[in-house]
Predict the structure of Glucose-6-phosphate isomerase.
Amino acid sequence: MTDRPVDPTSTPAWAELSALADGFAPDLRGWFDADPERVTALARTAGDLHVDLSRTFLHGDLLEHLLSLAEQTRVLERRDAMFAGAHVNPTEDRAVLHTALRLPADASLEVDGQDVVRDVHEVLQRLYAFADQVRSGEWTGVTGRRIETVVNIGIGGSDLGPVMAYEALAPYRQDGLTCRFISNIDPTDAAQSLEGLDPETTLFIVSSKTFGTLETLTNARLCRAWLLEHLPADADRDAAVAQHFVAVSTALDKVADFGIDPDNAFGFWDWVGGRYSMDSAIGLSIVVAIGPERFAEMLAGFHTIDEHFRTAAPAANVPLVLGLLNVWYGTFLGAQTHAVLPYAQQLHRFPAYLQQLTMESNGKSVRWDGSPVTTDTGEVFWGEPGTNGQHAFYQLIHQGTRLIPADFIAFATPAYPLVDSGPDGDTDVHELFLANFLAQTRALAFGKTADEVRAEGIDDDLVSARTFPGNRPTTSIMAPALTPSVLGQLVALYEHTTFVQGAVWGIDSFDQWGVELGKQLAQKVTPAVAGDPSAIDEQDPATRALIAYYREHRS
Ligand code: F6P
């Protein structure tokens, strides 16, 4: 699908929405008072996800106009093209088929004459067999000891998804088997991650789609050197790398060049974007940690939301509605950022994961045909788990001057049900936690009027400081529990929401040329940092000055 994108600003729906945005004055209190059915009317379900849109800015015929915008910008046609394997990533001339990674084994999808479902399941079976060997102790290190630590070496999409899921699914991990993650080229990361590890019981997974990423290859070499240096003197060093290193990549030839046995390499395909790859072989560390059965449940969760996105009617289609709402907030109302606030400590890496997913996807200023965008595009995603965020940055969301739409995510069943036996009796701590989520979303929506503050006997000159304007939009997403399936559903929900936004704006959400320049320059600067005079001469004055500072102060 390389035809010209529709300019969203040229559509009738755009004109209608612009008129609505002009002087838009949300009134959540009034909307709730006027419509006792508001909560029911704006509740949506996608798989196990219960989504409450009643405290968003949906009101009157806004949703209809947004759905018209989707229709007029051909979002659903583009969705169908993506699912069918069309090259919806034109700047790299690639299909975009992360949805094929979670199709059931009995499905089939032919792309360029190849049944990709068969390929996907062949790799999955190899991953599962390998993970079973590690988990059972059948796979050993070179000295015959079972593996106790798996270190994933990767960055971006080859790190953030695995580490996020490893944390999120902590209760499902196998005892006696731990994962660590090295991503940063700051040597501190490798040094600290390797600290205390026993080389005899450590397995490294080098995860890199391209197998050309400087950070990952550097860290992989550091780890290889560490392994060879720290194994016992009598260990067979020739066999060590094959026994302690496996790889995940689309570039299997480069894997062999690194010295990793091709039998221990797991492939995937160029139609899986890095930030969409945690459900491919890139998820190997997750498979090892939680086991094939649970990983398959996670894939099934992804697929549930894929099917929802593919088939649900537009007004009931949660990723479609959420993506359009984000366009409303960002493009029409000028919101620059979007907070994601999980009330689940296990999701503490989820906002970081989403930052790559959303911002690498939609941080674009040209459309997929190379023409300039006609609107603002991707917003800044950020967040921290509640309740920690409440004591840090919520002040700005409640009483600041900026519009910050927020997603709150919470689960009915806690992973660790603990009871606080305090002076007033037993308190279920999870209920205390949920009460905070409910209190925050309520305060953000309805605020506290000056009259309510006065009624508490507050001095007149303090009333305005204690008044909360309310009308801060939130979406609440709840699920029964944070299971592997629900995690897959959540990730797929955000993947498709991101897609919808990009499709409205007419951008290619699947390339990432914006990170290339920095990568190229880093290679050119490296010899200058090391002191090569001709390389230093090639730098700009600011870079030269900082290199000089570095060389003077390094001890
Ligand atoms: O940051 C750019 C990027 O290409 C990401 O899209 C990708 O996830 C990351 O680098 C890592 O790339 P690779 O898996 O090829 O090492």
